[in-house]
Amino acid sequence: xxxxxxxxxxxxxxxxxxxxxxxxxxxxxxxxxxxxxxxxxxxxxxxxxxxxxxxxxxxxxxxxxxxxxxxxxxxxxxxxxxxxxxxxxxxxxxxxxxxxxxxxxxxxxxxxxxxxxxxxxxxxxxxxxxxxxxxxxxxxxxxxxxxx
Length: 148
Prior knowledge:
Residues 124-148 are annotated as: Disordered. The protein is elongated. The protein has one domain. The protein is 68% helix and 0% strand. The protein has helices spanning 16-62, 66-75, 87-114, 120-129, 141-145.
């Protein structure tokens, strides 16, 4: 059995409980990464909406609806999405106050407990679930590149 590459092998003395805990920490970080992506999507869509709203205001004016256009322009175009903040400020606060701390502490845990190695839980799961020697079940990319 070939097994995972060195970057994904458990260091000597590391327990199943530690690998499991780091796996959960990694899973939580993955959820944060997805949430961050959705936050950036929210940022982009909100910005697009505001720019499109500006176009709608101009078209309302051109169509002879100046009073309504003025109200929308005054009350909604450029409005904060939450008190005192546009979406870029929300994204920056999330990155600075939560995301960066999460990334730092996840990295610290890996550095202290498993020599900085990533995805040990998943690598061991792969090794447990794959069929050694079967095409499509190679342990590492090197096995494919070298013909198995």
